[in-house]
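Limitations
The C-alpha cells in this dataset are predictions for the assembled complex, not deposited experimental models. Users should treat interface geometry with appropriate caution, especially where small molecules or nucleic acid strands are included. An illustrative entry is reproduced here so readers can see what is and is not provided.
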Amino acid sequence: MNFASDNTSGVHPAVMAALAAANEGHVASYGSDALTRAAEDMVRKVLDAPDAAVMFTATGTAANALSLAGMADPWQRIFCHNEAHVEMSECGAPEMFTGGAKLTLIAADGGVLDADALDHAASYWAGEGLGGGKPGAISISNTTEAGRVWSPDQVAEIGAVARQHGLSLHMDGARFANAVAASGASPAELTHLAGVDLLSFGGTKNGAMGVEAVVAFDSALAERLAYMRKRSGHLLSKHRFLSAQFYALLDGGLWLQLGAHANRMAARLAEGLAGVEGASLVRPAESNQLFVRLSPDAHDRARGAGAVYRGWPSLSDDDADAEGFVVRLVCSWNTTETEVQELIAALKG
Amino acid sequence: MNFASDNTSGVHPAVMAALAAANEGHVASYGSDALTRAAEDMVRKVLDAPDAAVMFTATGTAANALSLAGMADPWQRIFCHNEAHVEMSECGAPEMFTGGAKLTLIAADGGVLDADALDHAASYWAGEGLGGGKPGAISISNTTEAGRVWSPDQVAEIGAVARQHGLSLHMDGARFANAVAASGASPAELTHLAGVDLLSFGGTKNGAMGVEAVVAFDSALAERLAYMRKRSGHLLSKHRFLSAQFYALLDGGLWLQLGAHANRMAARLAEGLAGVEGASLVRPAESNQLFVRLSPDAHDRARGAGAVYRGWPSLSDDDADAEGFVVRLVCSWNTTETEVQELIAALKG
Amino acid sequence: MNFASDNTSGVHPAVMAALAAANEGHVASYGSDALTRAAEDMVRKVLDAPDAAVMFTATGTAANALSLAGMADPWQRIFCHNEAHVEMSECGAPEMFTGGAKLTLIAADGGVLDADALDHAASYWAGEGLGGGKPGAISISNTTEAGRVWSPDQVAEIGAVARQHGLSLHMDGARFANAVAASGASPAELTHLAGVDLLSFGGTKNGAMGVEAVVAFDSALAERLAYMRKRSGHLLSKHRFLSAQFYALLDGGLWLQLGAHANRMAARLAEGLAGVEGASLVRPAESNQLFVRLSPDAHDRARGAGAVYRGWPSLSDDDADAEGFVVRLVCSWNTTETEVQELIAALKG
Amino acid sequence: MNFASDNTSGVHPAVMAALAAANEGHVASYGSDALTRAAEDMVRKVLDAPDAAVMFTATGTAANALSLAGMADPWQRIFCHNEAHVEMSECGAPEMFTGGAKLTLIAADGGVLDADALDHAASYWAGEGLGGGKPGAISISNTTEAGRVWSPDQVAEIGAVARQHGLSLHMDGARFANAVAASGASPAELTHLAGVDLLSFGGTKNGAMGVEAVVAFDSALAERLAYMRKRSGHLLSKHRFLSAQFYALLDGGLWLQLGAHANRMAARLAEGLAGVEGASLVRPAESNQLFVRLSPDAHDRARGAGAVYRGWPSLSDDDADAEGFVVRLVCSWNTTETEVQELIAALKG
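Predicted assembly:
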C-alpha cells in the first residue's frame, strides 16, 4: 500500500517493451534518429499542434526550467502559485536556467490562479519600473500541486491576462494525463487554444521510466531550447530510449487510460474515506491526489498496516485547532482496487 | 558497420535485464532506495575509496559540469586541453554550472597535458591578479578525446602540479573503462592515488542506457553536489533505474570486460588498416578510438559498403598538404570481429 | 521643495572638497592607494571592528548584491521582508550575483521582521529537503524601506535566529546614518555585536556623490568579495575618488550629523502635518522618511506650489476605503527648515 | 614620472568643474535628468549616430560586459584576441553578465585580428553543432591592448565577416579617444559605418573620474541594456555626476585633444628611446602605449630615478634569448613633455 507519490511506481510494461524494442542495432545519437522524429510527431498529433517544437528530457524539473528559460529573460518576473512545484520543489532550477529571473508568488486556494489577481500583479510590477524587474511570464500547473484540475475556460482567462500584459504562459503538466482525463477537455483545448505557449508534458508519473516533453507551440523557440537543453546536460546521447518511452505512452492513448485509472482509484479512495472515522478530505478529490486530515488513531492504524504516504505540514498548519494532521495520498497508474480497499480497511481498523 | 561513436550502440543485455529486475513494486524516489545505496557502495569498492561521495546522473555533460561546479568558483580558471570535451562539445555547460568560470586551454598532442605547461599557466594566471581570475582547477580526460591513455605516473605529475598551486583535479572518465583496461592500472591508481579529486565515471558509452557517476573523493563535497544536481534537474525521480544500470555494469567486472573488448576491436582494426592502401593512422591506437587519414578512394569504397563514421575536420586541417582527410573510427562494447573485418575489406575494395 | 528621495540631493561640500583634494598627482589604481587604506581603516574604527574587511562600491545595489553573494550559495534561500529593496527595487541583482539564490519573503509591518516568523520559515524550508533549497541567509534593512528603525535588541533577536539555523545575517544600511542617529545606539551595537555578518554601509544618500561600503565582519570573506567585485565591474580604476568620499563623510562624524539632520527635518515635517487637514501619517515618523495619506485637495495644493514627492501605491491599496492616497516624503542631508515649512504651508493652502 | 597606466592619472580640470557645476539643487535620480539627456545627445552627435542608444556606467569592465551581454546569448561564442581585456583583465565579467558565453581566443600580433582567421573560426564552430556552442559575436579593442590602432578598412573587414556569419560586432574603446586621434578617421567611420554594433566608449582613461558609455547603434537593444545595467548595480542614483563628466569631455572636442596629447607624448618618448642604449621598442608606437625591452641596467637607472611602470611578462617570454625584459610605458592626458624627457634621461643614466 504505497500512496507516497506517483513516482514511487515502476514502469508500465508497454514502456519496458518499447525500451527493449528500441535496443536494436546502431542508431544515430543525440536525437538524430527516426524513433525520435516519430515520437515528436506523435506529441504534435496528440496536441493537435502540427507546428509545435518538441524536445524530450529525463526529468520534470528540467522540462519546467527549460520552458521558463525559453520564455523569460533574466530581468523578468514569472508569476506562479505560492505552492507551485517550480517554487517549492526544484531547488532554484528556474533561477539557474533563466539566469536569475524572479518567481513572484500569487496565493490561490488549491493552486488555480485567479485572473484578476494576476492582472493586478502584472500591472503593479509593470508600474515599478526598472527596479521591479519586468513582468515576463506566468506558470500554472495542471493538475495543480493540490490535485485541482483547470477547465479550458479557466486556462483561457489566464491566457487572456497573459496576452494583455505581453506575458508568456507556461503550463507545468507533470500530471497532464490526469488533468486531461479529469477535465474531459482535449489536450489542445487545455493548452494552445487557451493561450498556453509552453507545456511541460509529463511522462514519468504517467508510467514512464523517466521522460518529459517540452512543447513550444511557437516553434521559433526551437533553436533557443535546443542550445539550452544541450548546455544544461539534458540532451541524452542514446536519445532513442527517451523517445521510445514517450511514443509508447501516447501510442493508442495509453497515457490517458493510465491517467484516468489513477484518477478513478483516487475517487474510489475518496468514497471510502467518507466512511472512515478520523479521516476527512481537506481539498476536493478532482484528480489522483487526495489531501486528507487524519486523526492520530487513524494514522497509527494505517501505518501499522504498512501504508506508506507523506505528511503535508503546510496544510496541517492551516487549521491549528483541528485534530490530527494532513497527509497526501497519491494514486498511480498501477494502484489497484485492492490496495485502495486495504487502505480504507486499515484506516477503519 | 557503424563506427560513428560508442553512443550509437545500444544497451548491454545485462543492463537491460537489470532494468527489468528493478521494475518491481513501489520504491522510494529521488535516490532514497536500497539499490542506489548498493550501486554507490559498488562504485566506492571498485575505486577502493570507501569515503567517496557518489552521485549518479543520466549524461556525461551533467557529470562533468557538476564535477567542475563542485570544484571551481565563478571567478576561477579551469585549465584543460584545447580539445577537451568540456570545451568542445558541451555548449558551455561548465560555464553554466559554475556560474561563469573560464576554461583556459592548454595545447598538448593527443590531449595528455604536460605538467610543466600546466605549472607555467597556473603561475602566469596567479600573477595576473584579480583581473585574470583565480587559478582554480584542472580537468583532464582519460581516455582523451584523441584516444590516448594516461599512465598513473602521468596523472600523478598533474596531481602534483595541482597540489602545488592549490588547484582541484577533475578527470573526465566518459571512457574510463577503456582507460583502465588499456592502462593495466587500477581505478584507484589512476584517480585518487594520483591526486584526482573528482571523477566523471562513465557508464553510457560502456554499455548502459544512460548513466554516469560523479565521484568526489573528498566527501565534504557531497552536500554541495547534491543541491547542484537537484537544481540542475539531474536528480531523477525514479532513480532506481539509474542505479540499476551502474550496478549491472560494475557487477562481476562487466565494465572492464566491455572496455577491454572495445579496445581490442580497435587494435584489430588498426592492424588491418596497416594493410590498406590509402589509410593511415594519424594517432597511435591506444584505446577504442582510431584517427585515420583516408584517401578519397578508400573513403568512397567504405561509404559504398555502408560504413558509418565521422570526419574529423580539425585533424584534417593539421596537414593541408596530405591527401584525403581524417576520420574517427570508434569501436564499442558490441563491435564485432566481423564488422572490423568487413570495414577493412571495404576500405581495400 | 523636493521630497522625492534622498538621492535627488546633491553632494555635501565637504565631499566635493575631498574629491578635489584627492585629485593630485599619479596614484596607484584599483584601490592600491593610501587614501583607500585610510578610508577602510576609518570604517573599521567607526564600527569598532578592527578585523573587518571593507570594500567600496559606487552603488547600493552593488553593495547589497555583493554582500548577499558573499553569504549565500546559489541553492540557498535568503529570507527578507516583502518590501525589502533587494526584492522590490534591484531588478534581480541578488539573483544575478548569487547565481540564482531565492529571496523568500516574510511579511512584517514596517519591515521590522519578527524573530518567530523567521524561525518558523527557516525551520519550514529546512524541512523541505533538497527541493526546497537550503536556508542560507537573512537580509534586513536599517532603516527599513518604511522608515522604521531597529533597536539593537531587535537586531540581536534576528541574529540569534540566524545562529540557531546556521544562517548569515546581512543588514542593508543604505540609510545606516539615519538608523544610527535615530536609534541612539552605536554602529557596533546595531551590527556585529547583534550578530550581523555583513553590512551595506551607505554613503550616497548620506551626502556622497556615489559610494557605499561592503563590510564583512568575518574577514575570511575578503578574497571572495574582492573577486566578485572585480568580475561584476564594481572595482573602479580611479578608486581614490570613492575612498575620498567615504573618508570625508566619516571624518569628524559628519555622517551622523547629516543623518541626524535629515531625521530632524522629518520630525519637524511630521509635527507640522499634524495641523494639516487632509494629511495623516500612515506609519510612525522614526527616521527621515514619512508615509502620509493625502486628500486629493491637499495633494493638488502641494503640487501647485511646486512640491515634488512620490506616490506609494502599495500603501494606498492597503485601505481602499480611505480617501486620497499615500505618498512618501523624504528629508535629506540638505533639506532645510524653510522647505519643510513651505511644504506644510502649501498643504494647508 | 608615472607611466604605469592612464588610470593612475587624476581628473581633468574641466571635468572637475563640470562635477561642481552639476552639484546644484535637487535633480531627478537614476538618469531621468536633463543633463543626462544632453550628454546622451552629445554622444550621438559625436558618433553621427542619431538613433543610437546611449547608457553611462562607471567602469570599463561594466561597459564591456553589458555590451557583450547585449549581443550574445549564454550558449554562444564570442571571438576575441587572446590578449583582449575582456579575456585577460576582467575576472570573467563577460561570462557573468552573459550568463556563461564562451570567449574563443584568436591569436594576432598586436591585437589587430585577421578577417580570414575570424572567418575560419566562425565557420569551424558553426560546423561543430550544438555541442560547440553557437558563434554569436566578435569583440575587438581599439586601441588594442598592445597599443595598435585600427584603420576604418580593417574594422570594416571584420564587420563584413560578422555580417556574413550573423555575428554582432563589439568594439572595446577604453582608449577610443587615442584610437580616433591616431587614426585620423571619424568616430563614425571607425564604428557603425564599419559594421560595429556596440561600442564601449571610454571616458575614464581620457581624463574623467570614472565614466564610460555603452553605445548601441541598434536602439532596439536599449530596453535589454537598461534592465541589465540596473540588475548589475551599474545604474547610479545620482546619475547626473556621470553625465556631467562625459559631457565635459566631449564638449568642444576636449576628448580628442586629450587623446592626441597622450599619443604625442608617447611618440616623443619613442623618439627619445631610439637614442637609449638598452631600450628598444618591441611593438610599433601607434598610440599612447609603448612596449619596450629594457636591459637590467636601464631598468635600474629608471627605477632609481623614481620612474613607475609595469613589467609585461607575456611579452618578455616571447623571446627568451633576449636580454632584459619588456615593460609597458603609458602616456596619459596629463603626461608632460618634462616627464618624458626625465624618463629618457633616467634611462640613459
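Some entries come with short summary sentences. For this one: Residues 13-252 of chain C form a domain with the Aspartate Aminotransferase; domain 2 fold (CATH 3.40.640.10).
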